[in-house]
Amino acid sequence: MNVLIVFAHNEPQSFNAAMKDLAVKELEAQGHKVQVSDLYAMDWNPVASAADFGSRKNPDYLVYALEQRHNFEAATLAPDIAAEVEKLQWADFILFNFPIYWYGMPAIMKGWIDRVFVSGLCYGGRRIYDRGGLAGKRAMLAFSLGGQEHMFGEGAIHGELDLLLRPIQRGMLGYVGLTVLPPFIAWHVPYLSDEARAQILADYRERLHQLDTLEPLVFPTMGDFDETLRPKAG
Q1: What distances in angstroms separate CA 207 from CA 86, 96, 164, 202, 212, one per listed residue?
Q2: 132: which residues sit within 8 A by CB, 6+ positions away?
Q3: What's the pLDDT tens digit per position in 8-54?
Q4: Spatial separation of the C-alpha atoms in residues 54 and 206, rounded to whole Å
Q5: How confident is residue 136, by pLDDT bands cut at 50, 70 and 90?
Q6: Three-state secondary structure of the chain
Q7: Closest of 128, 118, 120 to residue 48, by C-alpha
Q8: pLDDT by residue (tens digit) across 182-234?
Q9: Rounded CA gap, 59 and 50, in Å?
Q10: Which of 13, 117, 204, 222 has the fewest CB atoms below 10 angstroms from its CB?
Q11: pLDDT attached to residue 60
């Protein structure tokens, strides 16, 4: 399959970078084609603005999603966005590799989502969830965080990890139709020994060999909702 790794870490020698390098090596060894969008190395601009559009549907008032749709159809998106959209269309599987910052992804990666998940291609109207524009493609998060596993869960100090990840896994990935695999989590990385970090990488290598057997996360199915997006009776 075609794999796009969207990678965000500001230190090339980081553990996340080691995860990225391992994923490239392992996935290519399995026969997959891999592209990497290294957002910091690319000096990716995360700010969604009028400069993203070479033409305007409404030059007097910016409605970003509507201009995305217009410019995608007119092939007038900014060159940096157009290049990433091309990768997105090419990919069968998208791997998001990043550290958790303040209960979310780094701003540079959120800006990639904002600018590259364009209306008209990825979503629009009732083209969401299982009817989203990226339906048929798969995605997975692979991230590190400073906390330990016991710090997350019902009644735990930081709450349930699923709730923390919901804006990403459901609100971004599931929303546009991606089939989302369970995340790979590198716990407590800054405080571990070299041996413990090596074990995490070994576990990650094993996960990358299980992509075809993992049970995807469950998100809404549009057929279960009426025209007003209320649940159907019964």
Answers
A1: 27, 14, 22, 9, 10
A2: 122, 123, 175, 176, 177, 178
A3: 999 999 999 999 999 999 999 999 999 999 999 999 999 999 999 99
A4: 44
A5: very high
A6: CEEEEEECCCCCCCHHHHHHHHHHHHHHHCCCEEEEEECCCCCCCCCCCHHHECCCCCCCCCCHHHHHHHHHHHCCECHHHHHHHHHHHHCCEEEEEEECECCECCHHHHHHHHHHCCECCCEECCECHHHCCCCCCEEEEEEECCCCHHHCCCCCCCCCHHHHHHHHHHHHHHHHCCEECCCEEECCHHHCCHHHHHHHHHHHHHHHCCCCCCCCCCCCCHHHECCCCCECCC
A7: 118
A8: 999 999 999 999 999 999 999 999 999 999 999 999 999 999 999 999 999 86
A9: 9
A10: 13
A11: 97
Average pLDDT over residues 169-190: 97
Sign of CA dihedral 220, 221, 222, 225: negative
Whole-number Å distance between alpha carbons of 1 and 107: 28
Residue 25: beta bridge partners?
A: none
Residue 183 · residue 216 · CB < 8 Å = no
CA distances from 40 to 7, 44, 89, 91 (A): 8, 6, 22, 21
Which pLDDT does position 144 carry in this prediction?
96
Torsion-angle region of 229 (φ positive above 0: left; ψ -120 to 50: alpha; else: beta): left
Token couple for 131: 């009817």
As given in the structure block, the two tokens for residue 107 are 């701003």
Residue 207 is encoded by which pair of tokens? Answer: 């996960």
Return the ∠ at Cα 166 (arms to 161 and 168), rounded to 5°. Answer: 110
| pLDDT computed for residue 233 by the predictor | 87
